[in-house]
Design brief:
Layout: E1 7-9, E2 16-18, H1 31-55, H2 62-74, H3 79-101
Antiparallel strand pairs: 1-2
Helix pairs in contact: 1-2, 1-3, 2-3
């Protein structure tokens, strides 16, 4: 647990450690909070790519969305949360194939 004066108790009663040094530099960081921040940012990036893809001509935005989905997965975002983005990416791929080859559903 953490005291209100910025000191953190170490495991197994091994003592206390300050969370910041005298200059204010952070010495300890809550991993869970950082992971959650990265996850939120990754989801926001996917949503931004979805918004751009919806407004862009066929084929445009597909690579950015693909990259954003991969980064979101790496940040721990699950399949259920990315389902809509995957559907949009599949639709963009199909539109791009139809535009390039004049045929739909090549797969």
């Amino acid at each position: 647990w953490q005291a209100y004066n910025g000191w953190v108790r170490l495991a197994e009663r091994a003592g206390w450690m300050p969370s910041h040094d005298l200059e204010g530099t952070q010495l300890l960081q809550a991993i869970f909070a950082e992971e959650q921040r990265q996850r939120r940012e990754a989801l926001a990036a996917v949503q931004a790519c979805l918004d751009r893809a919806a407004a862009a001509p066929a084929g445009a935005g597909m690579q950015g969305l693909r990259v954003a989905i991969a980064r979101a997965r790496a940040a721990g975002v699950g399949d259920e949360e990315l389902e809509h983005a995957e559907v949009v990416l599949a639709r963009l791929r199909a539109q791009d194939e139809e535009r390039i080859f004049g045929v739909s559903n090549l797969r």
